[in-house]
Amino acid sequence: MLPLCGETWGEAAQWAAAQLQNTDCPRLEAELLLSTLLGVPRTTVLAHPETVLSEAVAAAYVEYVRRRCSGEPLPYIRGHAEFFGLNFFITPDVLIPRPETELLVEESLAWMRERLEVSRRGTSSSVLGAGLRAADVGTGSGCIAVALATSAPGLHLYAIDLSSPALWVSQVNAERHGVADRITFLNGDLLTPLPASVDLIVSNPPYVAENEWSLLPSSVKREPTLALLGGPDGLNPLRDLLLQSGAHLRAGGLLLAEIGERQGAASLELARAAFPGAHCSVLPDLSGKDRVLKVRLE
Ligand code: GLN
């Protein structure tokens, strides 16, 4: 019996692209799904379109394409996603890393570089993050914590999440990138399980407001609501985080939190109330939308 999707890799990818017309890049997605299934790079799929599919692979491919057509996000089917140039293991228990979240990593690293410049005048350490501790609150896949640990070899991190399945995913990612020895994983709500004070608090908390939920693309609704919904105005987790941070953030420390594009003014007000003496600002993402709340302590 001929496989439903054709006899060769090329025919199968062409068939899949036709099914995936409702996605942004049908041909690319078709090739990526096939490469995931075969366990080979996409370039191999492209280079050998004449390779014959086995019936088992064809049947599995039809199932992958069916899942994607039903609206399941591509990273959940493929089991991985890129963030900050690194490859992360992803399951439906975690939020899919977004490119705009890289701003949290970039800002953290810039701040650590500044600290290094200052400390160099007094001491000799040239290792980024040396002597500093950071907390990643609501770590999810661990993408922020792992990206920071790989770029700042001296930094010690606490990766915290309320979801134990998410924490397991973040541990797999830390192992994958060889930084598990510098990350302590803690199960709990916001900063409550944190055993020590830190110099840096970084977080992509849930921030979708209740009335925004129905407006979200259906693919986003496949992601964990625990990682997305932030109460009536979306700001409940940030509000609590700011209140808890006073007791955990060391003098001269930095707090960075991702926010929704319409939460700039409100989050700034919350930050100023929680940290009256601090320098508070809101940073835009690459498309110019308010995206990160920055609180710098004196
Ligand atoms: N940026 C996410 C979205 O696309 C929301 C992520 C979050 O709540 N932390 O909806």
Bound small molecules, by name, code or SMILES, are:
glutamine
| Oligomeric grouping of the chains | single chain
Report the count of strand segments: 9
Order of helices and strands: HHHHHEEHEHEHEEHEHEE
Shape designation: globular
In terms of structural class, how would the helical and strand content be classed? Answer: alpha/beta
pLDDT < 50 stretches: none
Strands of the widest sheet, in order across it, are 5-4-3-6-7-9-8
Major beta-sheet overview = 7 strands, mixed
Helix content: 25-40%
Query: Which strand-content bin applies to the residues?
Result: 15-25%
Radius of gyration: 22 Å
Q: How many helical elements?
A: 10
Question: How would you portray this structure in words?
Answer:
Helix content is 38%, strand content 18%. The chain has ten helices and nine strands. The strands form two sheets. The protein has a seven-stranded mixed β-sheet, with helices on both faces. The protein is globular, with a radius of gyration of 22 Å. The protein binds glutamine. The site of glutamine (GLN) has 9 residues, from loops. Glutamine (GLN) is lined by residues 98, 204, 206-208, 216, 220, 228, 258.
